[in-house]
Specification:
The chain folds into 2 domains: about 140 residues, no CATH class; about 160 residues, no CATH class. The termini are far apart. It is built from 15 helices and 3 strands. By secondary structure, it is mainly α. α1 runs antiparallel to α6 and α5 packs antiparallel against α6. Strands 1-2-3 form a 3-stranded antiparallel beta sheet, with helices on one face.
Length: about 325
Protein backbone atom coordinates (compact mmCIF):
# COMPACT_ATOMS: atom_id res chain seq x y z
CA UNK A 1 0.00 0.00 0.00
CA UNK A 2 1.30 3.43 -0.90
CA UNK A 3 2.17 6.00 1.74
CA UNK A 4 -0.77 8.14 0.70
CA UNK A 5 -3.10 5.19 1.17
CA UNK A 6 -1.71 4.49 4.63
CA UNK A 7 -2.26 8.10 5.68
CA UNK A 8 -5.80 8.03 4.29
CA UNK A 9 -6.69 4.86 6.23
CA UNK A 10 -5.16 6.34 9.39
CA UNK A 11 -7.47 9.35 8.99
CA UNK A 12 -10.43 7.00 8.51
CA UNK A 13 -9.46 5.10 11.66
CA UNK A 14 -9.18 8.37 13.58
CA UNK A 15 -12.65 9.36 12.38
CA UNK A 16 -14.11 6.04 13.50
CA UNK A 17 -12.51 6.44 16.92
CA UNK A 18 -14.05 9.90 17.18
CA UNK A 19 -17.52 8.64 16.20
CA UNK A 20 -17.45 5.46 18.29
CA UNK A 21 -15.27 6.19 21.32
CA UNK A 22 -15.35 9.95 21.88
CA UNK A 23 -18.76 11.17 20.76
CA UNK A 24 -21.63 10.34 23.21
CA UNK A 25 -24.26 8.80 20.98
CA UNK A 26 -27.46 7.49 22.55
CA UNK A 27 -28.95 6.80 25.96
CA UNK A 28 -31.30 3.94 25.11
CA UNK A 29 -33.30 3.50 28.30
CA UNK A 30 -30.54 5.01 30.44
CA UNK A 31 -30.34 8.50 31.98
CA UNK A 32 -27.42 9.76 29.85
CA UNK A 33 -25.90 9.22 26.42
CA UNK A 34 -23.23 6.56 26.02
CA UNK A 35 -20.73 6.20 23.23
CA UNK A 36 -21.14 3.35 20.79
CA UNK A 37 -18.01 1.76 22.22
CA UNK A 38 -19.43 1.89 25.76
CA UNK A 39 -22.62 0.26 24.50
CA UNK A 40 -20.61 -2.48 22.82
CA UNK A 41 -18.58 -3.17 25.94
CA UNK A 42 -21.76 -3.40 28.01
CA UNK A 43 -23.54 -5.75 25.57
CA UNK A 44 -20.47 -7.93 25.05
CA UNK A 45 -20.63 -8.89 28.72
CA UNK A 46 -23.92 -10.62 27.89
CA UNK A 47 -23.39 -14.29 27.01
CA UNK A 48 -25.61 -13.90 23.95
CA UNK A 49 -23.36 -11.27 22.37
CA UNK A 50 -19.94 -11.94 23.83
CA UNK A 51 -18.76 -13.48 20.55
CA UNK A 52 -18.87 -9.94 19.12
CA UNK A 53 -15.64 -9.04 20.90
CA UNK A 54 -13.78 -11.60 18.74
CA UNK A 55 -15.34 -10.64 15.42
CA UNK A 56 -13.09 -7.61 14.64
CA UNK A 57 -10.02 -9.83 15.06
CA UNK A 58 -11.58 -12.49 12.79
CA UNK A 59 -12.35 -9.87 10.14
CA UNK A 60 -8.78 -8.57 10.45
CA UNK A 61 -7.41 -12.06 9.88
CA UNK A 62 -9.57 -12.45 6.76
CA UNK A 63 -8.22 -9.18 5.40
CA UNK A 64 -4.64 -10.22 6.16
CA UNK A 65 -5.20 -13.60 4.49
CA UNK A 66 -6.12 -11.95 1.17
CA UNK A 67 -3.66 -9.08 1.39
CA UNK A 68 -1.42 -10.28 -1.47
CA UNK A 69 -4.35 -11.07 -3.75
CA UNK A 70 -5.85 -7.63 -3.03
CA UNK A 71 -2.53 -5.83 -3.56
CA UNK A 72 -2.31 -7.16 -7.14
CA UNK A 73 -5.55 -5.39 -8.07
CA UNK A 74 -5.47 -1.82 -9.40
CA UNK A 75 -5.97 0.90 -6.80
CA UNK A 76 -8.52 3.24 -8.33
CA UNK A 77 -10.74 5.60 -6.36
CA UNK A 78 -14.49 5.49 -7.01
CA UNK A 79 -17.01 8.29 -6.54
CA UNK A 80 -19.55 5.70 -5.35
CA UNK A 81 -17.56 5.52 -2.14
CA UNK A 82 -18.24 9.16 -1.32
CA UNK A 83 -21.95 8.50 -1.80
CA UNK A 84 -21.75 5.63 0.69
CA UNK A 85 -19.81 7.81 3.14
CA UNK A 86 -22.45 10.53 3.01
CA UNK A 87 -25.22 7.96 3.46
CA UNK A 88 -23.36 6.44 6.41
CA UNK A 89 -23.03 9.87 8.03
CA UNK A 90 -26.76 10.41 7.49
CA UNK A 91 -27.56 7.12 9.23
CA UNK A 92 -25.21 8.00 12.08
CA UNK A 93 -26.80 11.42 12.56
CA UNK A 94 -30.33 9.98 12.29
CA UNK A 95 -29.54 7.49 15.05
CA UNK A 96 -28.04 10.26 17.18
CA UNK A 97 -31.17 12.36 16.86
CA UNK A 98 -33.53 9.41 17.35
CA UNK A 99 -31.50 8.04 20.28
CA UNK A 100 -31.17 4.63 18.56
CA UNK A 101 -27.91 2.68 18.58
CA UNK A 102 -28.92 0.45 15.68
CA UNK A 103 -28.80 3.33 13.20
CA UNK A 104 -25.33 4.14 14.50
CA UNK A 105 -24.23 0.55 13.90
CA UNK A 106 -25.54 0.69 10.32
CA UNK A 107 -23.90 4.09 9.83
CA UNK A 108 -20.47 2.84 10.94
CA UNK A 109 -20.69 -0.22 8.69
CA UNK A 110 -21.69 1.96 5.73
CA UNK A 111 -18.85 4.39 6.45
CA UNK A 112 -16.31 1.55 6.44
CA UNK A 113 -17.65 0.25 3.12
CA UNK A 114 -17.69 3.74 1.63
CA UNK A 115 -14.13 4.45 2.72
CA UNK A 116 -12.92 1.19 1.12
CA UNK A 117 -14.64 1.99 -2.20
CA UNK A 118 -13.57 5.63 -2.22
CA UNK A 119 -9.92 5.10 -1.30
CA UNK A 120 -9.09 1.89 -3.18
CA UNK A 121 -11.88 1.27 -5.69
CA UNK A 122 -14.64 -1.23 -6.25
CA UNK A 123 -12.40 -4.13 -7.27
CA UNK A 124 -10.40 -4.11 -4.05
CA UNK A 125 -13.53 -3.47 -2.00
CA UNK A 126 -15.18 -6.50 -3.60
CA UNK A 127 -12.28 -8.68 -2.50
CA UNK A 128 -12.82 -7.50 1.06
CA UNK A 129 -16.60 -7.93 0.98
CA UNK A 130 -16.65 -11.16 2.98
CA UNK A 131 -14.54 -9.67 5.79
CA UNK A 132 -16.92 -6.69 5.87
CA UNK A 133 -19.94 -8.99 6.11
CA UNK A 134 -18.31 -10.93 8.94
CA UNK A 135 -17.68 -7.64 10.74
CA UNK A 136 -21.45 -7.16 10.86
CA UNK A 137 -21.69 -9.94 13.45
CA UNK A 138 -19.93 -7.75 16.03
CA UNK A 139 -23.00 -5.57 16.58
CA UNK A 140 -25.40 -6.68 19.35
CA UNK A 141 -29.10 -6.74 18.48
CA UNK A 142 -30.90 -7.20 21.83
CA UNK A 143 -34.35 -6.64 20.31
CA UNK A 144 -34.03 -10.07 18.66
CA UNK A 145 -33.89 -11.66 22.12
CA UNK A 146 -37.33 -10.27 22.84
CA UNK A 147 -38.92 -11.02 19.47
CA UNK A 148 -37.39 -14.43 18.74
CA UNK A 149 -36.51 -15.75 22.19
CA UNK A 150 -40.01 -16.69 23.34
CA UNK A 151 -40.93 -18.27 20.00
CA UNK A 152 -37.77 -20.38 20.10
CA UNK A 153 -38.60 -21.47 23.66
CA UNK A 154 -42.03 -22.68 22.54
CA UNK A 155 -40.52 -24.48 19.55
CA UNK A 156 -37.88 -26.14 21.72
CA UNK A 157 -40.52 -27.42 24.15
CA UNK A 158 -42.82 -28.76 21.43
CA UNK A 159 -40.11 -30.45 19.36
CA UNK A 160 -38.40 -31.97 22.39
CA UNK A 161 -41.74 -33.23 23.73
CA UNK A 162 -42.54 -34.74 20.33
CA UNK A 163 -39.20 -36.58 20.24
CA UNK A 164 -39.59 -37.85 23.82
CA UNK A 165 -43.08 -39.17 23.15
CA UNK A 166 -41.81 -40.71 19.92
CA UNK A 167 -39.15 -42.75 21.75
CA UNK A 168 -41.60 -43.88 24.45
CA UNK A 169 -40.86 -41.32 27.19
CA UNK A 170 -44.28 -39.87 27.95
CA UNK A 171 -44.00 -36.14 28.56
CA UNK A 172 -46.34 -33.23 29.14
CA UNK A 173 -45.89 -29.78 27.59
CA UNK A 174 -47.20 -26.85 29.62
CA UNK A 175 -46.27 -23.48 28.17
CA UNK A 176 -42.48 -23.38 28.15
CA UNK A 177 -42.14 -26.22 30.65
CA UNK A 178 -41.67 -29.92 29.95
CA UNK A 179 -42.23 -32.63 32.53
CA UNK A 180 -42.76 -36.36 32.77
CA UNK A 181 -46.31 -37.71 32.73
CA UNK A 182 -47.82 -39.17 35.93
CA UNK A 183 -48.05 -42.94 36.26
CA UNK A 184 -50.81 -44.12 38.60
CA UNK A 185 -49.76 -47.77 38.48
CA UNK A 186 -46.23 -46.96 39.64
CA UNK A 187 -47.37 -44.19 41.97
CA UNK A 188 -45.33 -41.65 40.08
CA UNK A 189 -46.41 -38.01 40.11
CA UNK A 190 -46.20 -35.59 37.19
CA UNK A 191 -42.69 -34.24 36.87
CA UNK A 192 -41.17 -36.81 39.23
CA UNK A 193 -38.81 -38.21 36.60
CA UNK A 194 -37.92 -34.85 35.15
CA UNK A 195 -39.22 -31.31 35.06
CA UNK A 196 -37.50 -28.83 32.79
CA UNK A 197 -38.44 -25.20 32.33
CA UNK A 198 -37.07 -23.90 29.04
CA UNK A 199 -35.89 -20.50 30.18
CA UNK A 200 -34.50 -17.82 27.87
CA UNK A 201 -30.87 -19.10 28.13
CA UNK A 202 -32.04 -22.58 27.09
CA UNK A 203 -34.05 -21.37 24.11
CA UNK A 204 -31.03 -21.51 21.84
CA UNK A 205 -30.68 -17.75 21.42
CA UNK A 206 -27.32 -17.62 23.20
CA UNK A 207 -25.79 -20.20 20.90
CA UNK A 208 -27.60 -19.14 17.72
CA UNK A 209 -25.67 -15.94 17.04
CA UNK A 210 -22.31 -17.48 17.90
CA UNK A 211 -23.16 -20.42 15.63
CA UNK A 212 -23.95 -17.98 12.82
CA UNK A 213 -20.37 -16.73 13.03
CA UNK A 214 -19.02 -20.29 13.19
CA UNK A 215 -21.27 -21.30 10.32
CA UNK A 216 -20.31 -18.48 7.99
CA UNK A 217 -16.59 -19.15 8.59
CA UNK A 218 -17.05 -22.91 8.21
CA UNK A 219 -18.93 -22.40 4.94
CA UNK A 220 -16.28 -20.00 3.64
CA UNK A 221 -13.31 -22.26 4.34
CA UNK A 222 -14.91 -25.64 3.60
CA UNK A 223 -16.51 -24.73 0.27
CA UNK A 224 -14.99 -22.92 -2.69
CA UNK A 225 -18.12 -22.30 -4.79
CA UNK A 226 -20.38 -19.42 -3.75
CA UNK A 227 -23.69 -21.25 -4.14
CA UNK A 228 -22.41 -24.15 -2.05
CA UNK A 229 -21.35 -21.71 0.66
CA UNK A 230 -24.83 -20.17 0.59
CA UNK A 231 -26.52 -23.59 0.85
CA UNK A 232 -24.29 -24.65 3.73
CA UNK A 233 -24.82 -21.38 5.58
CA UNK A 234 -28.60 -21.63 5.13
CA UNK A 235 -28.59 -24.79 7.25
CA UNK A 236 -27.27 -22.96 10.34
CA UNK A 237 -30.68 -22.10 11.79
CA UNK A 238 -32.13 -25.66 11.67
CA UNK A 239 -28.79 -27.06 12.82
CA UNK A 240 -28.75 -24.68 15.80
CA UNK A 241 -32.28 -25.79 16.72
CA UNK A 242 -31.40 -29.48 16.46
CA UNK A 243 -28.16 -29.01 18.43
CA UNK A 244 -29.97 -27.19 21.23
CA UNK A 245 -32.67 -29.88 21.30
CA UNK A 246 -29.96 -32.52 21.70
CA UNK A 247 -28.64 -30.62 24.71
CA UNK A 248 -32.10 -30.54 26.31
CA UNK A 249 -32.52 -34.26 25.66
CA UNK A 250 -29.15 -34.93 27.29
CA UNK A 251 -30.28 -32.97 30.36
CA UNK A 252 -33.60 -34.82 30.53
CA UNK A 253 -32.10 -38.30 30.24
CA UNK A 254 -29.42 -37.36 32.79
CA UNK A 255 -32.18 -36.20 35.15
CA UNK A 256 -33.98 -39.53 34.69
CA UNK A 257 -30.81 -41.52 35.47
CA UNK A 258 -29.04 -39.41 38.11
CA UNK A 259 -31.70 -37.10 39.47
CA UNK A 260 -33.02 -33.64 38.76
CA UNK A 261 -30.68 -31.80 41.10
CA UNK A 262 -27.50 -33.38 39.72
CA UNK A 263 -28.44 -32.95 36.07
CA UNK A 264 -30.22 -29.60 36.02
CA UNK A 265 -30.18 -27.84 39.38
CA UNK A 266 -32.21 -27.32 42.52
CA UNK A 267 -35.45 -25.50 43.26
CA UNK A 268 -33.63 -22.17 43.80
CA UNK A 269 -32.69 -22.17 40.10
CA UNK A 270 -29.03 -22.78 40.86
CA UNK A 271 -27.72 -24.39 37.72
CA UNK A 272 -25.73 -27.60 38.22
CA UNK A 273 -22.20 -28.07 36.95
CA UNK A 274 -23.39 -30.73 34.51
CA UNK A 275 -25.97 -28.29 33.17
CA UNK A 276 -23.24 -25.74 32.48
CA UNK A 277 -20.94 -28.27 30.83
CA UNK A 278 -23.62 -29.44 28.41
CA UNK A 279 -23.40 -26.05 26.72
CA UNK A 280 -20.48 -27.40 24.70
CA UNK A 281 -22.78 -30.12 23.33
CA UNK A 282 -24.53 -27.52 21.19
CA UNK A 283 -21.32 -26.56 19.38
CA UNK A 284 -20.07 -30.15 19.03
CA UNK A 285 -23.35 -31.32 17.50
CA UNK A 286 -23.54 -28.24 15.28
CA UNK A 287 -20.02 -28.76 13.94
CA UNK A 288 -20.69 -32.44 13.25
CA UNK A 289 -23.90 -31.60 11.39
CA UNK A 290 -22.17 -28.85 9.40
CA UNK A 291 -19.44 -31.30 8.43
CA UNK A 292 -22.08 -33.85 7.41
CA UNK A 293 -23.92 -31.32 5.22
CA UNK A 294 -20.63 -30.18 3.67
CA UNK A 295 -19.70 -33.80 2.92
CA UNK A 296 -23.10 -34.42 1.31
CA UNK A 297 -22.74 -31.31 -0.83
CA UNK A 298 -19.33 -32.42 -2.05
CA UNK A 299 -20.52 -35.98 -2.58
CA UNK A 300 -23.60 -35.02 -4.57
CA UNK A 301 -22.05 -32.22 -6.62
CA UNK A 302 -18.80 -34.04 -7.37
CA UNK A 303 -20.77 -37.18 -8.20
CA UNK A 304 -22.95 -35.31 -10.69
CA UNK A 305 -19.87 -33.70 -12.24
CA UNK A 306 -18.15 -37.09 -12.49
CA UNK A 307 -21.23 -38.60 -14.12
CA UNK A 308 -21.31 -35.84 -16.76
CA UNK A 309 -17.58 -36.27 -17.40
CA UNK A 310 -17.99 -40.03 -17.96
CA UNK A 311 -20.91 -39.43 -20.32
CA UNK A 312 -18.91 -36.94 -22.38
CA UNK A 313 -15.95 -39.37 -22.49
CA UNK A 314 -18.15 -42.19 -23.77
CA UNK A 315 -19.63 -39.92 -26.45
CA UNK A 316 -16.15 -38.83 -27.60
CA UNK A 317 -14.96 -42.46 -27.66
CA UNK A 318 -17.97 -43.51 -29.70
CA UNK A 319 -17.30 -40.76 -32.25
CA UNK A 320 -13.64 -41.80 -32.55
CA UNK A 321 -14.57 -45.45 -33.06
Amino acid sequence: MKRRGVISWCLVAAGLVLLMVVQPYAAGYGPFRRTIFQELMMQWRNATWQHGALVPFIAGYLLWQRREETARLPEKSSAWGMGLILFGLFLYFAGFRANVFYCGYAGIMTLVAGAAVWLEGKERARRRLFAWLVLGFMWPLPFLEESLGYQMRLMMVKTTGFVLNGVGVESLVAGTALQSMPNVELGRKAGQLFSVGIAAPCSGMRSLFALLVVGVLFSYFRQRVMWRRAVLFSTILPIAIVANMVRILVLIFAAMMFGQQWAIGDAEKEVSTFHELTGIVVFLVALMLLQAVSWLLNRCCDGMRGGRSRTVSRQVSAQVI
